[in-house]
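hey all, quick one before standup. I had two proteins in the batch that finished overnight and I want to keep them in one place so we stop losing track of which output belongs to which input. First protein below, input sequence then structure tokens straight from the run.
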Amino acid sequence: MSALIGEDEISDEVELVWLEDVSLLDYVRQSLDRLPTRRGRPAYHRDGRMVGYALLGPQARASRPSGTFRRRVFWLLPHDRDCDPEGLYGTGAPSESVDPRTVAAKAKGHKTERSEGGPLSSVICEMDTRLRL
């Protein structure tokens, strides 16, 4: 869960790779997965889809027992708000979710009014209106 991810656990990140335009998403789920490499697109074995992942720098050390690296993976499930706006997460958000606009390499991000399904702020609404013109 994102609330359980500590800044020290993501301190070896050097870049985030987004597979989709996250400006269109209210939230993404994030988890720390054990992966065989520091870099490259990881295999994805969940329902739904992978939205992004972290790349680690050369200083990142593998776990001695498993030889794997803990890397963040960002993902969404079929019943998440982007696919089912009136569904389970029409308001509120999963515990492991964060607003993707608040996430960066080495920064775990947090929930916002938007990620929780609240109304958009007047600044965001104004920006959206300008983009449509």
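OK second protein, same deal, sequence then tokens:
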Amino acid sequence: MAFADTFKALADPARREILLMLRAGRMPAGEIAARFDMTAATVSYHLSQLKKAGLVYETREKNYVFYALNASVFEELMLWLSQFMGGDGDEAH
């Protein structure tokens, strides 16, 4: 997993908002775009960055493209981040 792409994707507030929207389940690209005050091309760019980072995946059904969270990448990220939680009390303050 390329953490650089993941963190770059997560750095943008619009992309974080898209991820929050997808928590409820997969959504068509048009519905995602309708919730933002930006061009469809800009939303498409954000979706492509999330896809590049592996945070979402797309499926095509007829004329629609649906996006969904890629849970395995979030699990891997959480496992990595968990190394910095807790500890034995020796960490510097």
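Flagging for whoever picks this up: The radius of gyration is 16 Å. The mean pLDDT is 89.
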